[in-house]
Design goal:
single chain, about 75% helix, about 0% strand
Length: about 220
């Protein structure tokens, strides 16, 4: 008989997490029609929905509402989701702008932007972002390293790839299967097949993805 923002957030979140982003956005529209005021959590879910289906029109409107309410000042999670949404929609200029305007940014912020550049084949831009996050004293995570290795593979940046590999070893991440596959791809695409084979042989788990990377 009575539903509040928490009720709507629960339903919207359920649709998003189960891959029904269009339904999530319909719930958001009905929520507004009922006169309910979204909170930061609502915007997190609807931004994820927009990013997953590439709905940049709704995404930009939601971003405008977020700025009007001045929610980015104290909510880093919301800022990171906005960057990820624009990156997945291929609007990297806006993603970069959001990151630049965040009062505080973390490795998740940078990784979302780097992933967007890498996905679009803009390897040089991804590497510039990587240098910037390192200057800010942030430590890359698995997602960051994976994206950077892919960027190096795309543009044949073997020197940067080798430097990244050395940093991965220092962080004790060399045995991770996802990182291992990315390393195999990077070395193979740069023509270093013996090194790709060596990394493959050292992996504790060799699945179909790592086999495919080496055969390719």
């Amino acid at each position: 008989p009575v539903r509040d923002v928490i009720s709507w957030n629960g339903l919207i979140m359920g649709y998003v997490e189960n891959g029904h982003s269009e339904e999530a956005l319909k719930c958001y529209e009905w929520m507004l029609i009922e006169g309910m005021s979204p909170d930061a959590e609502t915007y997190v879910f609807v931004c994820k929905a927009c990013g997953s289906i590439g709905d940049i029109q709704n995404g930009e409107q939601i971003h405008t509402d977020i700025e009007r309410k001045d929610l980015l000042r104290e909510d880093m999670v919301l800022g990171n989701v906005l960057i990820d949404m624009y990156a997945k929609c291929g609007v990297l200029r806006k993603a970069q702008q959001v990151l630049n305007e965040l009062p505080v940014r973390d490795i998740v912020s940078w990784s979302a932007l780097i992933g967007g550049y890498t996905q679009l084949g803009l390897g040089h831009e991804a590497l510039k972002c990587f240098s910037s996050l390192q200057k800010e004293g942030l430590s890359p995570n698995l997602i960051t390293f994976t994206c950077i290795l892919k960027a190096c593979a795309n543009i044949g940046a073997i020197k940067k790839g080798q430097e990244t590999h050395a940093e991965i070893r220092r962080n004790g991440l060399g045995s991770d299967a996802v990182i291992g596959t990315a390393l195999i791809n990077m070395y193979a695409n740069c023509g270093f097949l013996h090194e790709a084979q060596r990394i493959f042989d050292q992996l504790s788990v060799q699945d179909v993805t790592t086999w495919n990377a080496l055969m390719d």
